[in-house]
Amino acid sequence: MTWSPDGRQVAFDCVTTGARNIYWRPADGRSPMEQLTKSEHNQFLGPWSPDGKTLAFVEDGPNHNHDILLLDVGNLRGTPYLNSPYWEAYPEISPDGRWMAYQSTESGRYEVYVQTFPVVGNKKQISNNGGTEPLWSHDGKQLFYRRGPDWVGAEARNEVWVVDVQTGSDLSPSKPRLLFRQPEGQLGYGGSDPIRAWDRSPDGKRFLMVQLEERKPQPLTEMVLVQNWFEEVRRLVPPGRNR
Fold first, then answer.
1. How far is residue 137 CA from its own chain's centroid?
2. Which positions ≥6 away from 34 have C-beta within 8 Å?
3. Do residues 79 and 68 lie in contact, with contact meaning Cβ atoms separated by under 8 Å?
4. Which of 28, 98, 150, 193 is 20 to 30 A from 237, alpha carbon to alpha carbon?
């Protein structure tokens, strides 16, 4: 789910019939949800462009090679942004709306790249030893990613790296540096596929991630039996009462 830049719309992906497609609905809930795309292939919603005119999303193609597409919310026309034999996902549009960060397998492993937006060009490789799930800082001066040379679940996401970025007529990335890693002995940070599952707080001081934990099964020591359950429901919520 993602909010439009003006806060008036909420876009999301869901399954109603067939494949997962893209929908939106007014944030105040006064109108029903509207389907924005129709495809037989599953689609996963990415970010909204800063000007509110474009939604980026990922589509799982017939060969299960994810591609990145752009949806013009004015005419509901979808066009490919990256459509290649490689696995391309995790689209992230820069705060100034001029660059797209994403993850691709074109090198033979998962790496983070940046190209111009909305027209592809001037490609820059950001990570150099594996990288996943890029995330822009709010001022667009840094690009974060989680490190993992191979897609091996939580183990691939236990480090956060950062690249300083200078923008202008061109984009100039610095050498990646480790920002922090998860302590030894912990399972790792959870993720999702093919859309980013972590974020940074508005003040830029904190990251939000899912901490994976190993939980041992607890023995069952008690069982509660509720009799006449429907009678209890009718007593608490009698017919005609607002729910």
1. 15
2. 23, 24, 25
3. no
4. 28
Class of domain 2-217: mainly beta
Sketch the domain layout of the chain as residue ranges.
2-217
CB contact burial 68-105 (16+ within 10 A = b; e otherwise): bbbbebeeeebeebbeeebbbbbbbbbeebebbbbbbb
Helix (H, G, I), strand (E, B), or coil: what is residue 143? strand
Give the three-class secondary structure for 216: coil
> Which residue pairs, CB below 8 angstroms and at least 24 apart, start in 10-14?
11/36, 11/45, 11/48, 11/55, 12/45, 13/43, 13/44, 13/45, 13/57
Q: Name the CA dihedral angle for 152, 89, 172, 200, rounded to a multiple of 10 degrees.
A: -80
**Polymer length of the chain:** 243
Q: From the CA atom positions of the chain, what is the Rg in Å?
A: 22
Between CA 138 and CA 209 the distance in angstroms is 17
- Asked if residues 130 and 109 have their Cβ atoms less than 8 Å apart, the reply is yes
Instruction: Retrieve residue 12's tokens.
Output: 């999301």
Cis ω on the peptide bond leading into residue 194 (within 30° of 0)?
yes
Which residues pair with residue 44 across a beta bridge? 58
pTM for the predicted model, two decimal places: 0.81
The tally of CA atoms less than 13 A away on the side-chain side of residue 188 is 15
